[in-house]
Write a structure and sequence with these properties.
Layout lengths: L3 H16 L11 H16 L7 H17 L11 H27 L2 H4 L4 E6 L3 H12 L4 E6 L6 H11 L4 E4 L4 H4 L5 E4 L3 E2 L5 E4 L2 H11 L3 E4 L45 E4 L6 E3 L4 E2 L4 H8 L11
Main location: cytoplasm
Subcellular location: Cytoplasm, Cytosol
GO molecular function: guanyl-nucleotide exchange factor activity; translation initiation factor activity
Length: 312
């Protein structure tokens, strides 16, 4: 299924064609959009000679192919034909793909505003976005120390520790059970996210909820790195461990050959839901926002008609 944001692009293009390019469009020039465009232009100018990541280019081509194949050979949004829609949709799709390509880089360039000298920063497991955030700050000679929770039973924190240490960033790997004990020494927490929900809550790696509760108890700021493409129009006002989760094989916890296997029910959740009241700041591609502002960003990214396609 096409990303819901692309459905919004289709609606906007059809309205532009029907009413003219300078009227009838529901694109809002908000401060957030202006900052995102300015950040994208800045990054493009600074890195115009850099090659884009090969995987992202392949992803872009795949999205374009999927869009072409998925458009029905019938009218969209009233009397606008697919033949009239396709050129403008492809232009908007290229812009959207470029925004995705640059989103992590634009986010990482905000690192100096959030990472200060001689701070101790705690993170959980491995996140590519968080890794680039740390590396950008280190490349600008900012001195800081990173505590990394190992994220058992998958131990992705070990990968993060290796990658950061290769960039000459001081790291310390900490067991998950020691999170409460070390929280008093931490200046702030920086994590990635699987998805950012419309109410400002988020789904992230298992163990994030416990981490957020400990941070709240010690009044340690919890910062979440969330590129634009991770914003979701879904609302999850209360904790539902089934709705926001996946459950892999319990083999990681207890071997199938164990004598205790027949007498135990083992559940291995992959993700936690963290409510918005436990989050201090959302760091997006353009600027930082409070969780209460996420609904506004979501309303700009998605059409209200597409927010609940399954129910429709």
């Amino acid at each position: 299924m096409l990303p819901i944001h692309i459905l919004k692009l289709i609606r906007e293009v059809s309205v532009r064609i029907i009413h003219g390019r300078n009227e009838g469009s529901d694109i809002s020039l908000t401060l957030q959009a202006v900052l995102n465009d300015r950040a994208t232009m800045s990054t493009t100018n600074e890195d115009e000679n850099d090659n884009l990541d090969e995987n992202l280019q392949l992803k872009k081509q795949q999205i374009q192919a999927d869009l072409t194949e998925s458009l029905p050979m019938s009218n969209v949004e009233g009397s606008v034909s697919v033949q009239r829609l396709r050129p403008d949709i492809m232009d908007d799709l290229n812009w959207y793909s470029n925004e995705i390509d640059l989103s992590v880089k634009n986010l990482a360039q905000q690192a100096l505003a959030h990472i200060h000298a001689n701070e101790i920063i705690l993170t959980l497991g491995y996140s590519y976005t968080v890794e680039q955030f740390f590396k950008y700050a280190a490349s600008k000679k900012r001195q800081f120390h990173v505590f990394i929770l190992e994220h058992a039973p998958f131990f992705t924190g070990h990968k993060m520790a290796v990658n950061l240490s290769q960039a000459n960033i001081p790291v310390t790997v900490v067991t998950d059970s020691a999170v409460y004990a070390i929280m008093a020494r931490v200046n702030k927490i920086l994590i990635g996210t699987r998805s950012l929900l419309a109410n400002g809550g988020l789904t992230a790696k298992s163990g994030t909820y416990s981490l957020a509760l400990a941070a709240k108890n010690f009044n340690v700021p919890l910062l979440v790195c969330a590129p634009t493409y991770k914003f979701s129009p879904t609302y999850l006002p209360s904790f539902d461990p089934v709705m926001c989760n996946s459950f892999p094989s319990p083999e990681n916890i207890l071997s199938y050959q164990s004598s205790y296997q027949s007498s135990l029910d083992i559940v291995v959740p992959m993700h936690d839901y963290v409510p918005p009241e436990l989050v201090t700041l959302i760091i997006g591609s353009g600027m930082g926002n409070a969780p209460s502002y996420v609904y506004r960003i979501v309303s700009e990214l998605y059409s209200a008609e597409d927010n609940d396609l399954e129910r429709s």
